[in-house]
Amino acid sequence: MRFLIALAWKNLSRYRRRTIITALAIAVGLGVYLWMDAWIYGVKLDSQRNLVFYEMGAAKVMKASYWKDLGSFPLKESIENLSLVEERLRPLGVQMTRRVPFSGEVFLGEGSLFIRLEGIDPVSDGRLFRLKESVEQGRYLQPGEQGLLIGAGLAKDLKAALGDLITVRCRTRQGAFQTFDLEVVGILNSPNPQVNRRYAYLPLSLVDEMLQMEGRVTELVLFFSGWDRPEQKVEQIKTALADLPGLAAVSWKLLASDYFAALRGDTIGNTLMLFLVFIIAAVGISNTMLMAVMERHREVGMMRALGMKDGQIRLSFLLEAAGIGLIGALGGLALGAALSFWIVTWGVDYSSLLEGMDYGYRVKGLMRGAWHPEAFAGAFIFALLASMVFSFIPTGRAVRMQIAACLRSQ
Amino acid sequence: MKRAIFALAVLIGAAWAGRAISAEEIIRAMERNQVHDTAEADGTLVITDRFGSRTKTFKSFSAGEDKMLIAFTNPEEKGQKILKLQEEIYLYFPEAEEIVHLQGGALKQSVMGSDFSYEDLTGEKGLLSLYDASLLGEEELDGRRTYHLRLKGKKSGVAYPLEEIWVDAELMVLKKANLYALSGKLLKDLVVKEVKRIGGKNVPVAFLMRDKMKKVSSTEFKLANLRIDQGLPPKIFSRENLSW
Question: Considering only alpha carbons, which residue of chain B is nearest residue A106?
């Protein structure tokens, strides 16, 4: 075996240019894939964090009929036995806050916009969500006040400033038109662009009065450790609430369908990138090994005449291919690491391009990457194995040649 | 004895002649002019907002208060239809060959971006089932004597919990309506621009709805070639007929 490895290495050195070119093609393809993977991974991690801590929480409990018609905020579908639900959930180690989201049209000056409003309990909401620390101007909400907290993007669209009186037009729980005038007490600038552009917050007590909720709420937002893998906890929650009919427990992963649609699109793009690397490796390695076999007929004939077995001859070529793959993979890792360092440290600022756009990700515009060690390990192994696999067929020619024919060839 | 009875009859007659009309009577008289066994018309909808004006044309068919069909004829929406059957609204989109049943929150959406919602097309029969009416007095509006009424929603689910309407005292036709939110804020007003005498009834054929919370937002609704109580085939008010 040592002899075969030494032989493979010697052959790589003999055909240096070919080795370098093939390895370089693999390295560039791999490096670019790792860079894109790090970028998407970083945006994914940021988006998830911003979704959970600024927008949705880790999970929500709501009425099943409310969940079915979520987009239209059916206020009539409020959670029954709310205190009992909260009592059941406390032993599971979840933290909770009550919310009533509704849609409304906000008016200031000549402009109006349809937005999402959230009636929140400023005390519990302030503890669990990170909106409080995102207030850029003014202050966070206080319980019971007639105030509004709006995102910086919404403030810009409405041309609103602190102290302005914004009129909200909406419907009560029973469907009657309602309006109320609220003072802008705070403008927040969170890392979540959706929150900044489309959300406004007001005290739950005010929503209760103006929308005639009579103490009812439509959503119970939950936080728990291990939020990035919520499936198990959600199952526990469902079990705890099993005897309370008509309720749904939904994780943030199900709630954030637009984010996952964007992620799927980019994952497909990245998979395509990997497929291209696959093709580069396949074509490059196959071509290189085919040329190696065809050029070394006499050499192969000599080795067979000296008693080397078919398996050993094949293995020598496969090791040569693996060597090219190894050089390419190492080069790819180095290139990928260099590009990833740039994207992790500085990122790319797309703010001006993406301003006002809904692209699914919950990232404001500065897109930073994140180190993804699993991708590096996977890419390295892939390059090695792919190199060996794609050289298997071309090297088959070597073992099918007759000794005499090999020794006769020029 | 006979003299006493005669005197009593005269007194009752005089009292009846001088009796003021009630709010309910005004509304019933107004609704008699608005509701027809069948009606058919060509219509125009001009929707104006801060981005400009756009015009939609349509043919409308109705039978009583429970059935209505609007088929759009302008190029952008040609073939699109709205069917109302009792409380249900169905939309038909010819390009997708799809019938959409509007329910719940979807009924609150605006019709073609106008100041009317689909919910405005549904609703129970008659104002008196939704509102308690009171007569505030008589006023002159555009040179016409009108009855000024206040309507207060009976149930908490009425879309406009408070309305004020002005009814032409002679024609018994709506002249103007102010629609208010629960807070008392004026949301919309509706002004009848033209009334025609058709089939023995005084029928509003042109009106303007304005969103009073926006600087520029109005919907002008006009009916032409209105034919009342001339019969319509019942099958046109069916889901199956939508795709024809």
Answer: B213
Whether residue A294 is predicted with pLDDT greater than 90 in this model: the reply is: no
Give the mean pLDDT of A205-209.
Answer: 96
Q: pLDDT per residue over B74-131, tens digit each?
A: 998 888 898 988 878 888 888 888 888 887 667 777 887 788 777 776 654 588 989 9
Task: Please give, rounded to a whole number of angstroms, the shortest distance from the CA of A209 to a CA of chain B.
Answer: 11
User: B15 exposed, middle or buried (CB, 10 Å; 0-12, 13-18, 19+)?
Assistant: exposed
Is residue B16 pLDDT above 90, yes or no? no
DSSP one-letter string for chain B = -HHHHHHHHHHHHHHHHHPPPPHHHHHHHHHHHH--S-EEEEEEEEEEETTEEEEEEEEEEEETTTEEEEEE-SGGGTT-EEEEETTEEEEEETTTTEEEEE-GGGGGSBSTTSS-BHHHH---SSGGGTEEEEEEEEEEETTEEEEEEEEEESSTT-SSSEEEEEEETTT--EEEEEEE-TTS-EEEEEEEEEEEEETTEEEEEEEEEEETTSSSEEEEEEEEEEEESS---GGGSSHHHHT-
CB contact under 8 A, A107 and B160: no
Q: Which of A69, A112, A179 sits opposite B183 (nearest CB)?
A: A179
Query: Which residues touch A360 (CB under 8 Å, ≥6 apart)?
Result: A258, A259, A261, A262, A263, A265
Residue A302 lies in a domain: yes
The tokens 């929603």 sit on which residue? B153
What's the mean pLDDT in B137-165?
A: 94
Q: Check CB contact under 8 Å for A180 and B183.
A: yes
Asked if the structure places residue A194 within a domain, the reply is: yes
d(CA B205, CA B225): 10
Q: Confirm whether A253 is domain-assigned.
A: no
CB-CB contact of A199 with A115 (8 Å): yes
Question: Domain extents for chain B?
Answer: 24-232
User: Which residues of chain A does B212 touch, with a Cβ-Cβ cutoff of 8 Å?
Assistant: none
Q: Tell me the ipTM for this assembly.
A: 0.84
In this complex, which of A72, A174, A210 lies closest to B106 when CB atoms are compared? A72
Domain assignment present for residue A241? The answer is no
CA distance A34 to A24: 15
Domain shared by A21 and A123, yes or no: no
Q: Write the pLDDT tens digit of every residue in B186-223.
A: 999 999 999 999 888 899 999 999 999 998 899 999 99
Give the CATH fold of the B24-232 domain: outer membrane lipoprotein receptor (LolB), chain A (2.50.20)
Are A34 and A86 in a shared domain?
no
Q: Which domain holds residue A185?
A: 59-223
DSSP state of A360: S
Q: Residue A176: closest CA among chain B residues belongs to which residue?
A: B159
- The domain total for chain A is 2
Q: Are A54 and A152 in contact (CB under 8 A)?
A: no
